[in-house]
Write a structure and sequence with these properties.
Strand order of the largest sheet: 4-3-2-1-5
Radius of gyration: 40 Å
CATH architecture of the largest domain: Orthogonal Bundle
Number of domains: 3
CATH topology of the largest domain: Helix Hairpins
Largest sheet: 5 strands, antiparallel
């Protein structure tokens, strides 16, 4: 009985000694892991903040793009800190890195469309074919840009509707930006009758354009004969105006030209075809007997 008690006492001391050794060893690992987490978390936040402020000072870098790269740097540093913490406990980090790579590949394949939108969003923010507040048209999508995100772009259509367009649909097509340039040209084409005075009509159109303060003096407005149509002589009034005044100016001048033509007896004919010569002789009016109703025997 005494021998068994001695053996139990010896085994208990050995277990307690081993447990204390493990506690001391892992306590240092736990303390080191906590310190790594605190320092790594703080350093990642500070570095991301510095990167964001630094990119914000660079001309041409959009705020959304700066925030994206700052968050990317922060999360990349946090992943490295997490791997270092696991290394404190003797975990094989090589296998973890391989697993993260495989998981990243799987997620990338699953979210291929989303990643494509992110890549397109980054390119839109870097190259900036359009900015917030500009009116664009891609053929299928048009409107005023309200916000450029990493996944999609928000627009407001001319009729006041909200539209959300994935960035990939905006990046892979030609984009027409109606607001980027400061000035725009407008060609006002109006047909007058062949019997009307061309010079008088051109003078009226040019005077109306020069009298409008929204029409730019340089380059100067001009008029010319565009073509001899089937039923009218088509005249063109070409002028330049500020981009913001493009639509109001064009609408006002169209109305003014119509009123001025009416006051000066210049006609704007309807589409018609006039036959003359041999062709007119071939077209005979219906004879009276052909126009009478015929009696039908029953």
């Amino acid at each position: 009985m005494e021998d068994q008690a001695t053996e139990f006492f010896i085994a208990t001391r050995a277990a307690l000694s081993q447990a204390s050794a493990l506690a001391v060893e892992y306590s240092f690992s736990i303390i080191g892991a906590v310190l790594l987490l605190v320092i790594g978390w703080t350093a990642a936040s500070l570095i991301a903040g510095w990167a964001r402020r630094g990119m914000a000072r660079v001309r041409g870098i959009d705020e959304t793009l700066a925030a994206f790269f700052a968050n990317f740097i922060r999360y990349a540093l946090l992943i490295l800190v997490f791997i270092a913490v696991l290394g404190q406990f003797g975990v094989q980090t090589a296998s973890i890195i391989a697993a993260l790579g495989a998981a990243g590949l799987a997620i990338g394949l699953a979210l291929q469309g989303t990643l494509q939108n992110i890549a397109a969003g980054i390119m839109l923010l870097v190259l900036r074919p359009f900015r917030v507040g500009e009116y664009i048209d891609t053929g299928g999508i048009s409107g005023i840009v309200r916000e450029i995100g990493l996944f999609a772009t928000e627009l407001k259509t001319p009729d006041g509707m909200y539209r959300l367009a994935p960035n990939s649909t905006l990046w892979n097509v030609p984009i027409t930006n109606f607001s980027r340039e400061k000035t725009r040209r407008f060609d006002l084409n109006i047909g007058i009758g062949y019997e009307d005075d061309i010079s008088q009509a051109q003078e009226i159109m040019l005077d109306l354009a020069n009298a409008d303060t929204r029409v730019l003096a340089d380059p100067a407005a001009e008029t010319f004969v565009l073509e001899l149509g089937d039923s009218a002589v088509v005249l063109t009034l070409r002028y330049w105006t500020a981009a913001a005044d493009f639509w109001p100016t064009s609408r006002d001048l169209i109305k003014s030209v119509k009123i001025a033509f009416d006051e000066n007896g210049i006609s704007i004919p309807f589409p018609q075809v006039t036959y003359s010569g041999a062709l007119a002789a071939k077209i005979e009016p219906p004879r009276e007997e052909d126009a009478r109703p015929r009696e039908v025997d029953v």
